[in-house]
Design a protein that fits this description.
12-stranded antiparallel sheet; 3-stranded antiparallel sheet; alpha+beta
């Protein structure tokens, strides 16, 4: 009997080990991979097509407090004003499946809804470098200097500038627009206005036959953000969401190197399940013309869910061999540590960085007064649940700066000191609420916990019963032996006496 119990206990122990450590994990991984893909009609596909929760989009503006002094060559003194808060809704349209490639094409769209109840009113007056005067003059000086005299004449006619800065309510500069009067017959003014009429100036929109408005971000509201082709991940789950094309191109033609031009990662709205932390969370940004890959930093917990925290910065391109292709001309013209030059991406003299020049070259911070970089407020991070491939908490922060140079031909810009001038920074943040985290806990971690419980009960019970049965079998065998010896001794005694 004890032998049968030992055999049964051994089978229970073996079952706990094989099923708990090997069978169940493989089955669960297979189930997750079968569900996390872009199969038409699936729950994952529906969430991917239209994200069900709004992203918090906040803007912080660097208000210039000493414009006259700065115009005359002084050091800019900045005051951060914000947040100006928006709801950001992401959706996809023109969706078409390509069965033979296991791919899907779509257009991305972002829609912003202003929420003054969550931040400032938007009517606060701010002063920043004029987004047309300075940007236009610096761009022409940098790339087409032969046209600079003509463009300066046009700027003087259109804007009659007394300052290279604009002072207006936040909403006018960023969304409602500042007025551009194109009614002049002056040749140089008409040359600039032609760019508005043809739609070449992003952010400009026509009001009537002779007037336009221009804003920094209004033109991008509820508009096409590019055409993508991505893998559906039905055949190979680890490829889900991987960008295959952007705007009908298989790779970029922006940078001086294949490594910088190739697409790496997803469109940032979906990630593969069961990733390794060392893989990074690569995604492609059309606005920055490059792929970015936050790296694993440490383990964290979000609402009781084990997660991995990923962080990123722009590194030091000049001293990173694999990123030399992001230089305009290596090694003489590379962006400063912690920054990215956007000239090749959008032909504007803009520099991207983390807010307040966090992790950037100290010379940039020394060029202005009023910045205080803090990792907690200004870093990028993603708390990522690696089994299901779900971002739980995200804060993507990015600062936009103007690469200022003096323009001798334009009176209001003659004395500006060369520097990287912070304009504003944005934060996209999202935190999954209890309904989503409860679903993850129920579908993944509760199942894992049940398996773990059953596994260890089977292993412990199997081991205990095996040891107990073995002990009882050994004890019973020993007792029988002792009893037999005793009987033999008693018989021997009886024979003698």
């Amino acid at each position: 009997m004890y032998l049968k119990i030992m055999i049964g206990a051994a089978l229970l122990l073996q079952l706990g080990i094989l099923v708990g450590f090997f069978g169940f994990p493989q089955l669960m991984n297979k189930m997750i991979k079968s569900q996390i893909n872009l199969k038409p009609g699936s729950d994952t596909r529906k969430l991917w097509e239209q994200f069900p929760i709004a992203i918090n989009f906040s803007i912080y503006v660097f208000n210039l407090t000493n414009p006259e002094e700065t115009q005359n060559g002084g050091k800019p003194v900045l005051q951060e004003i914000g947040p100006f808060v928006f709801e950001e809704w992401k959706d996809k349209y023109n969706i078409e499946d390509i069965e033979e490639e296991d791919a899907v094409t779509f257009n991305m769209r972002n829609t912003f809804i202003f929420r003054p109840d969550l931040g400032l009113s938007g009517e606060e007056i701010v002063t920043i470098p004029h987004p047309l005067i300075q940007v236009m003059a610096i761009a022409i000086k940098r790339d087409k200097e032969a046209l600079l005299e003509v463009v300066v004449d046009g700027i003087n006619v259109l804007f009659k500038p007394t300052s290279p800065f604009v002072t207006a309510p936040f909403m006018d500069i960023f969304y409602r627009g500042i007025d551009i009067d194109c009614s002049s017959d002056h040749y140089a003014a008409k040359l600039i206005c032609l760019k508005f009429y043809t739609g070449d100036i992003k952010g400009g929109f026509q009001v009537n036959a002779t007037h336009f408005k221009f804003s920094l971000m209004g033109g991008g509201n509820h508009s096409d953000a590019g055409q993508f082709k991505v893998s559906r991940g039905i055949k190979v789950s680890r490829n889900v969401g991987q960008v295959l094309q952007f705007d009908y191109e298989d790779e970029l033609s922006v940078w001086d190197g294949d490594e910088c031009n190739r697409f790496r990662g997803t469109d940032s709205t979906i990630f593969a399940p069961l990733m390794s932390p060392k893989d990074g969370l690569w995604s492609f940004s059309g606005d920055l013309c490059r792929s970015l890959g936050p790296k694993f930093q440490r383990k964290v917990k979000y609402d009781g869910i084990p997660a991995y925290r990923y962080t990123m910065d722009f590194g030091d391109v000049k001293n990173e061999l694999e990123n030399h292709c992001f230089c305009n001309k290596y090694p003489d013209d590379c962006p400063a540590k912690g920054t990215m030059d956007l000239w090749r991406c959008n032909e504007t003299p803009m520099i991207a960085s983390l807010p307040h020049f966090l992790y950037a070259d100290s010379k940039l911070l020394a060029g202005v007064d009023g910045l205080e970089p803090q990792e907690q407020k200004h870093s990028i991070f993603v708390d990522f649940e690696i089994i299901s491939g779900t971002p739980l908490s995200v804060a993507k922060r990015l600062q936009f700066n103007l690469d200022v140079i003096p323009i001798e031909q334009l009176k209001v810009m003659q004395k500006l000191r060369p520097l990287v001038m912070p304009l504003f920074w944005v934060e996209e943040s999202a935190n999954l609420d209890g309904s989503f985290t409860d679903m993850i806990k129920k579908k993944i971690f509760l199942v894992i916990k049940v398996n773990s419980t059953i596994k260890w009960i089977s292993i412990v019970m199997g081991a205990f019963l095996f040891i107990l049965a073995f002990y009882m079998h050994y004890t019973n065998k020993r007792d029988r032996k002792v009893f037999a010896v005793g009987v033999a001794a008693q018989n021997e005694f009886n024979k003698k006496y």
